[in-house]
Amino acid sequence: MHTMDHIETRIQQIRERLEHLDLDAFVVSTPENRYYLSGFSARDIALNEISGYLVIDRERQILLTDGRYVFQAREECPLYDVLIYTDNPMKAVAAAVRDGNPGRVGIEAYHLIVELYQRLVAALEGIEVIATVEVVEPLRAIKTETEIEKIRASVNLTEKALDQVLPRLKPGISEKQAAWWIERAIRELGAEAVSFDPIVASGPNASKAHHEPSERRLREGEPIILDIGSRLNRYCSDMTRTVILGTPPPLFKKVYLAVRRAQEKALGSIKSGMMSTEADALARREIEQSGYGEHFLHSLGHGVGLAVHENPYLRRTNPVEIKENMVVTIEPGIYIEGWGGVRLEQLAVIRQEGLEVLNSDKGFYLFETSD
Q1: How many C-beta neighbours within 10 Å does residue 2 have?
Q2: What stretches of 39-174 show up as alpha helix (H) in DSSP?
Q3: Could you list the pLDDT tens digit for every one of the 371 residues in the chain?
Q4: Are residues 181 and 130 in the same domain?
Q5: Is the pTM of this model over 0.90?
Q6: Helix, strand or coil for residue 359?
Q7: How many helices and strands, by DSSP H and E, does the chain display?
Q8: Quick check: bond before 332 cis, omega within 30?
Q9: Which domain range does residue 257 map to?
Q10: Are 341 and 224 within 8 A, CB to CB?
Q11: Beta carbons within 8 Å of 233's beta carbon, 6+ residues apart
């Protein structure tokens, strides 16, 4: 649970953002943003079944929800006026917005589906509705020390789960079975959930960056990518290790070392004030020098917090400044069609002087360049 002074500060920051964006009111529907600004922890059942909306204007902050969440909302959100709707959420949201006599109202374009957006616009006839992006997200990108500790705890739990499962991996076990063992270990260690469905990708499947575990069985001498994360106290973790059963063949060592060098270069060089595009380029240059440039098929990393993918994004396009107390993944990868791939991922906090890695160095191979 957030402390109320955190919530108060965040509401104030949103009001400043509204002034800057020339908005009189703002409707929040994204679950992570809603929790961040209010403490309301209910999850959405589906994209068109949202458990609650915040309306924040220059004077008021209102949480609108339905009867299923009324007691929870009152308990979790003492700084908000809690209003209950019975049948038509958009009508209720529009009525709450209208009470503040706004001229311009912002909605979250990243989240509100077209059908709900159209209903809200119809209900707000005569008021200008602005589809906004990046109102709450830049605030969420900078973590407090409390948030960083929650992420660190989630990382520790994820590592423990991997420690439990790695010794059980042997030839003949299916990717699905291994993924289930990981998921079960994460839950049994006390996480609320996995932060995403575990990825177990073996052999040629490891050339697909986001492979879904299949019935394919693990074999000796093939790369196995394990990309896993847990959600603990609402905060996510995300880590990847690539392992092999039996003796690592020369190609695996070569690709693995190229990825590890790129990762270490990024971990040793990224610091606050750098642009996200330069962070990505640091690792990309290393992989290009190894001769695998066209096999690094995704960006270097992304922010992690209440969501497993959030600001900032460390990629080749859309430069943003990397700031202190952002938490990012550093996850270069090389993918070779028909053979497999290697991805290695650490989670780190941007500090003034460089990166503070939240993971341990467990699970890495220590191949010598001469091997």
Answers
A1: 19
A2: 70-76, 89-98, 114-123, 137-141, 145-165
A3: 557 889 999 999 999 999 999 999 999 999 999 999 999 999 999 888 999 999 999 999 999 999 999 999 999 999 999 999 998 999 999 999 999 999 999 999 999 999 999 999 999 999 999 999 999 999 999 999 999 999 999 999 999 999 999 999 999 999 999 999 999 999 999 999 999 999 999 999 999 999 999 999 999 999 999 999 999 999 999 999 999 999 999 999 999 999 999 999 999 999 999 999 999 999 999 999 999 999 999 999 999 999 999 999 999 999 999 999 999 999 999 999 999 999 999 999 999 999 999 999 989 998 765 44
A4: no
A5: yes
A6: coil
A7: 10, 19
A8: no
A9: 142-357
A10: no
A11: 150, 153, 154, 192
- Cα–Cα distance between 320 and 245 in angstroms, integer? 40
Instruction: Indicate the DSSP class of residue 51.
Output: S
Considering the domain architecture, whether residues 249 and 271 belong to the same structural domain is answered as yes
Cα-atom radius of gyration of the chain, to the nearest Å?
23
Task: Indicate the residue among 140, 162, 179 that finishes a domain.
Answer: 140
In 3-state terms, what secondary structure has residue 263?
helix
β-strand pairing of 199-202 with 223-228: antiparallel
Residue 143 gets the label, from left (phi > 0), alpha (psi -120 to 50) or beta, of beta
The two structure tokens encoding residue 103? 């001229």
What are the start-end ranges of the E strands in the chain? Answer: 25-28, 52-57, 61-65, 81-84, 104-108, 128-132, 193-194, 199-202, 223-228, 230-232, 235-236, 239-244, 301-303, 310-314, 327-330, 333-336, 340-343, 346-351, 354-357
User: How many Å apart are CA 307 and CA 327, to the nearest integer?
Assistant: 12
Q: Does residue 363 fall inside a structural domain? A: no
